[in-house]
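Input.
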Amino acid sequence: MSLLSIVGERSVGQGSDLRAEVVAVGRSWSSAQHRLVVLLARLDRGGEWALDGAATCAHWVAGALDVEVSTAREWLRVGHALEDLARIDASFSEGRISYSKVRQLTRVATVDNEAALLEIAERTPAGRLGAAIARWLGAREDPAETERRQHAARSLSWRTDPDGMVVAMLRLPPLAAAVLMAAVDAWVLRNRPAATPVTGSGPDASADASLPRSVVGWPSVAQQRADGLVALVEGEGASVQTEVILHVRGDGCTLDDGTPVAGSLVERIASGAFLRVLIHDAQRRPINASGRQRHPSERQKRVVHERDKGCVDCGATSLLEYDHEPDYSISGHTIIEELRERCWGCHRARHQRQEGQP
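Output.
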């Protein structure tokens, strides 16, 4: 049963007309999306679009439907892919999977694997489908083929938004992306800003009263990462030290966030890398480590991270720090049982609460 079906049943049962209407519109939208991409593929094959002098079918669609050419190209790509993927096409037309899932499936599905990938899609939320498919492919695809496919799919593009900002889209192989993200986050942790909220009745307060708090106060993580990327490109972060964590287990190799990495790639970089090994016991638990130093050792950090998997308060998986509970000033030692992984925002907020700060 699809999520839309579940929500629809709950909506009717609880007498919520608005929720029922949202579900109905969503189903109608999904059906129209399927019909649209199928029609566009047929239009492209037939060539009628050329009668209006358009350079390509995508350009004709962009003009006729008032969308960006990139959007029209994606619709056409999906429509053409569905011509060879009968199972996915049927599931889409029947409303069992969304357009969001179809976009992801049609990038990698073939006649031979579409049944297995469709089964994964029908039981996996759209937000996690990409990683689930990547894991499935990684376990079955030849590592050399995985590398070739990912290398061929690399890209960087950008566009200007109406507010004048430039939006970039970057597609990188997993290891290259991990190195970039680690460098950006290392810069952010090394260059934490001081919050400067505008308060009071002075000229600064009145001038900035309409600005969001993220502008006049503590910048968001996304804003700081943008600053870090620019700093790295400009050479300011040339000395940033980064660490990329790779998990090598019996069922395959992954980055720290679960993104699969070809084992052949790990073997190739291992000879030139500085390696730290984290040993697990028979129950797959990381072996304990302790010490009386103020800051946790790298080994302790790895053990705590393997246990907590992210911030214990908000679930964040980046910009993580290691918090003593109770504080080191009370315990006088650093052991993993008394360490908690927190993103630096939650870490800072916890200590502010302890100190009675707003």
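Confidence is low (pLDDT under 50) at residues 1-14, 196-216.
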